[in-house]
Amino acid sequence: MKIDIVPSNLSTLNCIQVAITNILLYKKYSEYKTVWKDFNFGYKKEQDQLFGSLFSTTLLPKDELEWIHGIKLITITKHDTNEFLKEIKNHLDNGEPIMLDADIYFLKYHTSYQKKHGGHIITLTNYVDNRITCVDHSQHHIGEMSEEELIIASNKINTYTYSYIDLQNSKTILLEDDYKNIIESAYNNIKYEKSSFIDNNKVFFGLLGLDEFIKDSKILKETCPSEEFYAILADNFGNVSIGYYQLFNILKGSIALSPYKEELEIQCNLVYEIAQEWTIIANMCLKGKIKENTETSSRIDKKLTVIYQLTEQFRESVLNNG
Asked: Which domains does the chain have, with CATH numbers?
């Protein structure tokens, strides 16, 4: 059975979210825009560490898909390569796309091939004559690899893992109460600024997290090479923008069902503006990584101030109307 999935890099999602979303589109799942709905903004760092990382979501993809939507992300681990390949072929022959966590170091088409190691999600769509078709959305690539290449790329200490999506008992339409549940969870993070210890990490939520991040980033800049510093910031800012875009999609989808349309529209527009600002500042850092100057650092500081003010404005709206 032919699986028709082509490279489509949705810029507001990370690699596993892009892979899953495109599989949901292939399966014609109606609520594909709302499955990424977890929002929990903050900053965490290990004890005794100078610098940590920003986050805007805390649920694992498996838990996020199952929460409210009831989508199952099934992950299978094998130690025998023949069984691994046989099961993948059976799924693909039955029209079931497969996701694989591959090492970019061994993906011949990837820009990081034989340069650095790193986990990366690719989608398998066809298996004919010992050749497997793979789709890599972030690299905008579709092509074939041999069984041997697949085994090498997916080998995690003689363990081989693949995943697929089960929609059997999933929810096809979100109702008003579903949106209310999601929005309340997100807004609690914005309302209640707090800090706590979680798994040996000091975690700061809401604007308190942004305060701590800004303070720590100034220390990091004095101790870290500029290229590495801007690369770290770009990753942090890009990750945060994903969560804000997810929240925007939820707010936008809920407006038609809510009795508080006017308030939600204001908050929806604010969240979209914040998401865009995080994307802009991430791109600034990528440019700074290539060519740093004093203007770059000053512009980033000013942009962080804008983001902080917009987030304060959003919080005020939530506290007054949420």
From this structure: 15-30+72-166 (3.90.70), 176-321 (1.20.120)
